[in-house]
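Notes to self after the Tuesday call (sharing in case useful).
The group wants a holo model before anyone commits to mutagenesis around the pocket. I volunteered. Ligand is flavin-adenine dinucleotide. Logging inputs and output together so the record is complete.
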Amino acid sequence: MRTTKEETKRDGLLESPWQQAGNGVSSGVLTDQVYDCLIVGAGITGLTAGLILQQAGKRVIIADLRTVGFGTTGGTSAHINNFADTTYAEAESAFGEKGAQLFADAIQEGAALIKTNVDRLGIDCDYEYKTGYIYAETDQEVKQLDDIYQGMLKVGIPAVYNEEAPIPVPFKKVLEITGQAQFHPIKYLMALRDAFFKAGGMLSENTLIDKLESEGNIHSVLINDKRISAKRVIYATHMPPGINVFSFRCAPYRSYVLAVKLKDDKYPDAVVYDLQEPYHYVRTHVINGEPLLLVGGNDHKTGHDDPAKAFSDLEEYTRKFYNVSSVKYRWSSQYYVPADGFPYIGQIPFMADGILTATGFNGNGMMLGTISAKILADQAIGVANRYSEIFSTSRIKPIDGFTEFVKENADVAYHLVADRFGIPETDSLERLVPGTGKVLEYDGKKLAVYRDEQGNIQALSPVCTHAGCIVNFNTSEKTWDCPCHGGRYNTDGSVITGPPTKALQQIQIN
Ligand SMILES: Cc1cc2nc3c(=O)[nH]c(=O)nc-3n(C[C@H](O)[C@H](O)[C@H](O)COP(=O)(O)OP(=O)(O)OC[C@H]3O[C@@H](n4cnc5c(N)ncnc54)[C@H](O)[C@@H]3O)c2cc1C
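Result:
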């Protein structure tokens, strides 16, 4: 096994505070082998599943395109809740009372599984219970809050209205929900990785898994000239690669977080959420002995709004309500909103039997990624799991979700067509400011062009290799982001995250 002291990287230029806890790459030596399970992706979903399976006596290999925690798990804000972005009232209206109850049970079981791992493995990951508050600032939000409250009561989540809360924002009504928690996601993930190694698991980092070959019940792939075969494959990639139904059932969103130092000591000892559109949340985390206020939200569909503006709006909001001394960290990451509000977990439709995935976690992937890992591990072993049906990847639903589904896909169709006509013809290469990128027309060709700080130009085809939409430049993370399905690329064209597996084509310009 080899260990280097590289820092944990994540899928953007900006640094999250979690990266401080990175302790590099570890791996065994790859040989041609048949494993019980190949897990693609070393985020919270993949590592939790890997550990469960390896500890159940299965032989597991985890492969990640980059490094452990490189994906959204390295850019999360790491709240552990017993409620979710899909409210229990919404869950009931789309999936009935039984569906809402199963969803609540799954969320809570995911949260409990994290706590069990923390206790059982003795993980030092800043795990702390906190009281949660959701507050309403307008009459319409009060109505929303009442629905949330009723939904919680129905599924047995204890919540009470309170007169007071540690919130500097004037509010009309506030709901107090005890038993929330927070942790340091990378410290947790690294401990899962170490436990996985201890149980005999194998990890291959910097390994893109693209096309699998399936013969009978065995699926195989070449990694560094070694044929790695497995009886089951789990795509724990947040979104499975390639063209598949999930790209069309889940919409990619970017979400923003600041970690700020305050001039006073008014760090809330709670996790707090508003109901605005776009929403905000705050919590406190001690990083390197220093308390920091984490303020997050301002989400928007990937590739649609200006990330720099999302950050500046978030900072303005924070400064309005808190006595900010300095902004220590700012970062953004991506999550996927499922069309009908529930995650998709299980067999990937139209792929060979035994190729599984989990996606569509919304902003709740700590709990849903963890419970998905358990569901997928059960499915891989052939054990019944009570959540398999409700989260089935082939469910034909939804009562309410259909309109959302149509809306998200109409939006994709718009970008496929309209972006081709919308490229500014007049923008010239000369006017491109260092450190920025733009899709422009040059010499009769549409190009995605980035000028680095030294003035060097990197030109690429702007056509996303996934489904052919035109990428947009993300000024904050310095990436090319696809507005359709969330494919994201480095300025050299290489894939960072999302469903594409092929780089943007590099184009030579004079
Ligand atoms: C800003 C933000 C805040 C959030 N806050 C919370 C929160 O407070 N609580 C909560 O519960 N959830 C939260 N979420 C959601 C949660 O962070 C995610 O749902 C969760 O981290 C997803 O974990 P994952 O393991 O499924 O995917 P990831 O962590 O994205 O891991 C996927 C891995 O797969 C690898 N990969 C991808 N494609 C390939 C390939 N073809 N071959 C090999 N490897 C591949 C990637 O490199 C990556 O490491 C938040 C999300 C965002 C964006």
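Two things stood out.
The longest strand covers residues 324-338.
The domain at 127-182+251-338 is CATH 3.30.9.10 (D-Amino Acid Oxidase; Chain A, domain 2).
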